[in-house]
Amino acid sequence: MKDYSDWEPVLDFKNESPYIENPNRPWLQFRPDNVPKSINFEPIPVHEFIKKGAEQFPNNVCVYYKPTDKKYTYRELIYTADKIANALYDAGIKKGDAVGVMSSNCPEFLFCCLGIMETGAAVVPINSLLKESDVAHIIRDSGNINTLFIHKNQYRIIKRVRKQVEVDNVILIGTEEGKEGTITLTDFINGKSPKPPDVDFDPVNDVAALLYTGGTTG
After folding, report:
1. CA 50 to CA 48: how far, in whole Å?
2. 3-state helix/strand/coil string of 17-83
3. Among candidates 125, 104, 99, 96, which has minimal Cα distance to 174?
4. Burial of 91 by CB count in 10 Å (0-12 exposed, 13-18 middle, 19+ buried)?
5. Is the pLDDT of residue 83 over 80?
6. What are the chain's domains?
7. Cα–Cα distance between 49 and 144 in angstroms, integer?
8. Is pLDDT above 90 for 216?
9. How large is the average pLDDT for residues 101-109?
10. What is the pTM of this model?
11. Of 7, 57, 66, 90, which sits most exposed with the smallest number of CB within 10 A?
12. Dihedral sign, CA of 178, 187, 81, 45?
């Protein structure tokens, strides 16, 4: 696994970005001198980019989850994500796979997404408002989802979906109480090392996430 600890973007104050089609735009003409014209950087995996920022402010609050009045620091984010990555790796998840996450807004959603990316698998967020036929379609269409993280509120719909498609591993988040055919996130990561697996990433070509439309515009 490549070490990105020394990764830094290079601010270029002289050369315009090659992606700018019209350099005569007013906001470019009157841009302050202290604003760079372009930023050059070596491609970096999404999760490594997130972790770079987290390393600078490890003790700052990353998430404040108001329903439970609980706060999580960036250090806790990385710690939990690394444990999730190891648990997934031990469960057979590898680079090129896809792992689903079906949940409403909650801290575990972020932890799971980051942990999934650390294995080289693609995150497949599934809208928690979708009908079971749509959920089953996403699981089939994404090719090889056999592991799902779901919020406890989505347990019933996933139970029905599993009658249509095979899903080997269902991990419950938002609860410490397991249900039939599932394992809680706490039990899933119990005893796992907070160190991500050794994966060789190609940040230009690897798929970090596979996003399906919510259908909000028809």
Report:
1. 5
2. CCCCCCCCCHHHHCCCCCCCCEEECCCCCHHHHHHHHHHHCCCCEEEEEHHHCEEEEHHHHHHHHHH
3. 104
4. middle
5. yes
6. 1-42 (no CATH), 46-189 (3.40.50.980)
7. 26
8. no
9. 93
10. 0.89
11. 66
12. negative
